[in-house]
User: Which sequence fits this backbone?
């Protein structure tokens, strides 16, 4: 029997996400932008709720093209706020536009968002050795620094807890428990 992190439960979508995506190092700027938007949308909700809406988000937000999202006007924002396929929180939808604009500035300054974001972990994943989910932190000194810098650059919905979840999802930190079959594969 395959051992997994307990948090993914038995929902097939969640299990697939755990087995194929969570903790895999991301080095693609479009994927980074998607994760920023979705992690921000998740604030106060379960990740499974967001995961179930991810395809709708991809359609609604032009496949997470930061160049396109950065240009969204009031008409497009209203359209998004009326889209039942996404989380229709006004602040979260507006933050996607603000974050796209900030994202493009970071790309211009650093050459890529990937180059910028991985500096917070020294360019390689932090490999933790948690025996149980109860030991997983909600934040870290790295997520604190990331949050502070992203906010300084104009990003919204990037508190330290959201940044830590982002780091876990983007493979910047390996928080699979050591008994999980994915831990060794990503180590």
Assistant:
């Amino acid at each position: 029997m395959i051992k997994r992190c307990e948090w993914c439960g038995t929902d097939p979508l969640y299990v697939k996400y755990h087995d194929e995506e969570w903790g895999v190092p991301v080095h693609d700027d479009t994927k980074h932008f998607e994760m920023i938007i979705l992690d921000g949308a998740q604030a106060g909700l379960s990740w499974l709720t967001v995961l179930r809406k991810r395809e709708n988000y991809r359609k609604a937000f032009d496949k997470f093209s930061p160049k396109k999202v950065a240009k969204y006007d009031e008409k497009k924002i209203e359209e998004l706020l009326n889209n039942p396929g996404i989380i229709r929180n006004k602040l979260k939808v507006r933050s996607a536009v603000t974050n796209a604009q900030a994202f493009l500035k970071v790309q211009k300054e650093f050459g890529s968002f990937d180059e910028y974001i991985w500096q917070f972990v020294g360019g390689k994943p932090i490999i933790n050795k948690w025996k149980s989910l109860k030991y997983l932190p909600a934040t870290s000194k790295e997520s604190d620094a990331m949050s502070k810098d992203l906010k300084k650059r104009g990003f919204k919905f990037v508190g330290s807890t959201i940044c830590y979840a982002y780091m876990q999802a983007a493979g910047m930190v390996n928080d699979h428990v050591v008994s999980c079959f994915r831990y060794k594969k990503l180590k």
Observations:
- The chain is about 55% helix and 0% strand.
